[in-house]
Protein 1
Amino acid sequence: MHGYRIKTATTADLDGARAVMLDAVYRDFGTGYVPHWHADIIDPESFYVAPPRHTLLVAVDERDGTVAATAALDARGPAHPPNPRWLAERYPSGRTAQLRRVYVRPEHRRRGLARQLVAGLLEFAREDGDYRAVYLHTYPHSPGAMNLWANLGKAVFHEREEVPGDGSGVVHFEIPFTRAPC
């Protein structure tokens, strides 16, 4: 098996990172690019590279230098609306490290890349010192997502189970960051 290098994204990595992210929203989610939801994908530099408390990590395939996986963190908590007020209050912006865009190309899955990237994001959040919680949301149909997040944290709100008539199935997780994940 060949290797990967996990690193903080540079400007040179952004086109590859953007391609991984766009492929995921088209292939895995079936939504395609939706400007309101995916502005960070088109401009990852403004969202994740430039702000000091944000980061974008990539896994680079050492065989050919291509980006195989992405993971981002920012200081924006879940917004209300569309999320319930209690969720936005529990994970306020500025104090919450939100994990985003943890995507692995299909041909690179099952190699531990998502876990390694998440470990890097959690280390970034710990080093920042001002984050009090790590939050994310995911979809049950996202390949491998529910297994990964259930092993690393706990679901705090499952919309399909708790919101009558909501078919989205979004699941919100909190990940402890006092220790590194396995």
Protein 2
Amino acid sequence: MNARPPKKPRDLVDGVLLLDKPVGLSSNDALIKAKRVVNARKAGHTGTLDPFATGLLPLCFGEATKFSQDLLEADKTYLADVHLGVTTTTGDTEGETVDTRPVDVTPERIEAALAQLRGPILQVPPMYSALKRDGKALYEYAREGIVLEREARPVTIHALEMLRYEAPLLTIRVTCSKGTYVRVLGEDIGKLLGCGAHLNALRRIQVGNLTIDGMVTLEQLQAHEAPLSLLAPVDALLSSFPQVDLTPELAARFLNGQRLALGREPVALPPAQGRVRVYHDGKLLGTALLQEYGILAPERLIARPAP
């Protein structure tokens, strides 16, 4: 019997891939495919997209995984096609049709409905979601025909805009807080209009400060002769944080996890306290919390500063 050839050892790959996730692929499967192409030892994504959704899925490799939580907490922006007049079991195209109603609404009525959904709202998570109950995902209960009570959760719709309406399809752009289900938002629009609705398409176009600029498809990644060149640097995840540059001595102490008193050091500090990204000689060292009196408290440190 022939022995299997030894597996190629994984590489220490650091960076961020702005993936354009295709329809029909789970976020985890997309991550596995991309990780295989770049042969990375460690990888993670920054919040799932439903299989039927497309668009921006930032994938983190190596040291970048330390900062992926920041994008989980970030606001997101989506483009969505809302199909008015038809409700489904899942709130999107993957479910079965539950009800069909005539659509007789005007742009003015749509705008009035959208106005009611802007700002802080309470949203009931859908049964077809990955939220856990007693260690079991809600969608598993839903597939068994079981509907559980779900507590409404506070989310914030920062912006909600009608881009186009050609009955029965309504195209919207929404910027929302973490934890928002755009599928539920589409259903709520349908309820307010009295005709019901489901999402016909969903595309994410922004996560925090990351946009679709520089986004690549799996096919482009797989066909590229130097796929690592398509990765953005680790600090692409941290562009919204003020920058602090340290001297060589201070950088060494920072990487040892020491709190630094920078009030009397020759270091330029941002005007406000809060989270910062820390550098030496143009290389990211990690993140820190800038506290009162110029105290810099290390938070997450880079084990392998970029060469």
